């Protein structure tokens, strides 16, 4: 089953009116694919989806999880973590404390990857990492710090590719088919709800990562979010985007120095 | 199976997008096709190939030097504008927005593939509908068969490499088995077709 672009617009309006959630700036191509998937998965047609969104408690929450893409990895793009270690952390090491924001952190894999890199560089004790997302469920999962052991094997590969000199298994305890991230790695971490579309600045950060989130937004919403991230950064703080995401707008480009072009790492200079 | 006859010619007029897809064993013929495309091609071209995201492969760069038509890796929210060939970057699905800009998507691989040919074909069928031509080449899995069906249902033109010419037939054969094909062309016919593509698109029959 598949939803038409026209009906998709109706659904976006309905979600906004009934649940106050604004999907207007989201990629239509991705939303169309995800909503069509919900229709297939639960055998619903367009009318059923509308009915459920209005009348079934809990349906909107499920809908939101399914229409957003939560796929993540630990040490996704290993070369990014090498650049972070070699080009960003030496600079941050000169700061008395390091506040980090992982915006759109999904189930937390990126947050724990950042923690491990900070720890290896001896910076974790003066760091605090905020992981935020719109989804209550992914954040609950992030807080638990429990990851499927099969996936950890893949992440271990990624970790090796960051040219780390220790073993990934030092950071978790394996039990049956699940890995639990060590408690120590969770103590300077806070996960909470924050909507990049509608919420504002909530702290001042030395490092912000917002990776593979902007690809789901249209250019005007991307600009809105990038401005929010800019305003949330301390002067000389760093902004890290995903492997295929860039600043784009000239207005913002003047306020940042490009630190690593391949990894899309920027430093706020004005 | 039909070759390029009068009815196909009629459908080719007014085409707006060419989608090329291949996997294992298809790079050589893909390269020949790209070399055959004219430098002033009137429509945009998307290319979906399967390659390992973890290893940097610069097929685009090595091809650019030898082709008339310009080639690049697709950037997210970039408008599809002829003449240009856009390769899907490894590790992302490529989707097309209603305004003909490109979106990248990092959702789950589909049948172990990301980029998935099926995903892009479905998206192109949604947006370009009957103004699409898709060419499916050699490959060792069945990616593309569902997508070709979507393009066919949307009224686009589906071309499959003759399995007898394909290094690995699984992919073209899967599309043929679903009936998601208008014409089957040999490698030489594919090259000739692409050389003359402007003529096919621009002249009314
Ligand atoms: C593909 S994941 C990226 C996870 C991680 N940053 C990575 O690169 O591996 C995208 C995340 O963005 C979140 N997201 C989508 N819209 C959002 C919004 N308006 N505000 C905050 N997060 C959002 C989704 O819930 C999802 O968890």
Task: Tell me about this structure.
The complex is a heterodimer of chains A (about 270) and B (about 200). Chain A is an alpha/beta fold and about 270 residues long. Chain A has 10 helices and 10 strands. Chain A has helices spanning about 5-20, 30-40, 45-55, 60-65, 80-90, 110-120, 135-145, 150-160, 220-230, 250-255; strands spanning about 100-105, 125-135, 145-150, 170-175, 180, 190-195, 205-210, 235-240, 255-260, 265-270. In chain A, α6 (about 110-120) links the parallel β1 (about 100-105) and β2. Chain A is globular. Chain A starts with a helix and ends with a strand. By secondary structure, chain B is of the alpha/beta class. Chain B has a single domain, classed as Rossmann fold. Chain B has 8 helices and 9 strands. In chain B, the strands form 2 sheets. A 7-stranded parallel sheet of chain B has the order 3-4-2-1-7-8-9. Chain B has a two-stranded antiparallel sheet with strand order 5-6. In chain B, β8, α6 and β9 form a beta-alpha-beta unit. In chain B, α2 packs parallel to α7 (about 185-195), α4 (about 115-130) packs parallel to α5 (about 145-155) and α5 (about 145-155) packs across α6. Chain B is globular, with a radius of gyration of 15 Å. Classes of the chains: A alpha/beta (about 270), B alpha/beta (about 200). The interface of A and B includes residues 5, 33, 216 and 219 of A. The complex binds S-adenosylmethionine.
């Amino acid at each position: 089953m598949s939803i038409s672009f026209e009906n998709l617009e109706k659904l976006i309006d309905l979600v906004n009116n009934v649940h106050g959630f604004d999907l207007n700036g989201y990629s239509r191509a991705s939303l169309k694919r995800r909503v069509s998937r919900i229709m297939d998965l639960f055998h619903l047609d367009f009318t059923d989806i509308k009915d459920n969104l209005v009348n079934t408690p809990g349906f909107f929450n499920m809908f939101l999880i399914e229409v957003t893409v939560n796929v993540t990895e630990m040490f996704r793009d290993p070369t990014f973590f090498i650049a972070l270690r070699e080009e960003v952390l030496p600079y941050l090491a000169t700061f008395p404390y390091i506040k980090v924001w992982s915006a759109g952190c999904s189930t937390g894999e990126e947050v724990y990857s950042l923690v491990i890199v900070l720890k290896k560089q001896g910076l974790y004790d003066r760091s605090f990492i905020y992981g935020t997302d719109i989804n209550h469920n992914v954040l609950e999962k992030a807080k638990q710090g429990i990851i499927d052991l099969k996936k950890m094997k893949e992440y271990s590969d990624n970790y090796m590719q960051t040219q780390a000199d220790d073993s990934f298994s030092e950071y978790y305890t394996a039990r049956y088919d699940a890995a639990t991230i060590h408690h120590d790695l969770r103590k300077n971490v806070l996960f909470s709800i924050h909507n990049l579309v509608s919420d504002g600045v909530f702290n001042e950060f030395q490092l912000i990562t917002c990776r593979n989130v902007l690809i789901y937004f249209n250019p005007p919403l991307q600009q809105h979010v990038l401005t929010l991230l800019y305003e949330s950064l301390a002067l000389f703080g760093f902004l890290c985007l995903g492997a295929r995401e860039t600043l784009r707008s000239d207005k913002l480009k003047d306020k940042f120095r490009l630190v690593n072009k391949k990894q899309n790492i920027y430093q706020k200079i004005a | 199976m039909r070759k390029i006859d009068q009815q196909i010619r009629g459908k080719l007029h007014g085409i707006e997008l060419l989608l090329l897809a291949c996997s294992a064993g298809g790079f050589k013929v893909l390269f020949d096709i790209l070399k055959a495309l004219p430098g002033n091609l009137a429509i945009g071209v998307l290319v979906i190939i399967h390659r390992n995201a973890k290893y940097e492969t610069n097929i685009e760069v090595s091809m650019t030097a030898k082709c008339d038509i310009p080639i690049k890796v697709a950037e997210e929210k970039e408008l599809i504008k002829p003449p240009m060939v856009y390769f899907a970057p490894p590790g992302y699905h490529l989707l097309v927005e209603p305004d003909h800009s490109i979106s990248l998507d990092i959702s789950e691989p589909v049948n172990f593939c990301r980029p998935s040919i099926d995903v892009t074909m479905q998206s192109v069928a949604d947006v370009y509908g009957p103004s699409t031509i898709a060419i499916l080449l050699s490959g060792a899995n069945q990616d593309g068969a569902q997508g070709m069906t979507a393009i066919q249902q949307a009224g686009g033109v589906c071309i499959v490499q003759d399995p007898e010419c394909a290094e690995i037939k699984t992919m073209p054969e899967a599309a043929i088995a679903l009936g998601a094909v208008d014409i089957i062309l040999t490698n030489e016919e594919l090259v000739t077709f692409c050389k003359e593509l402007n003529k096919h698109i621009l002249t009314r029959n």
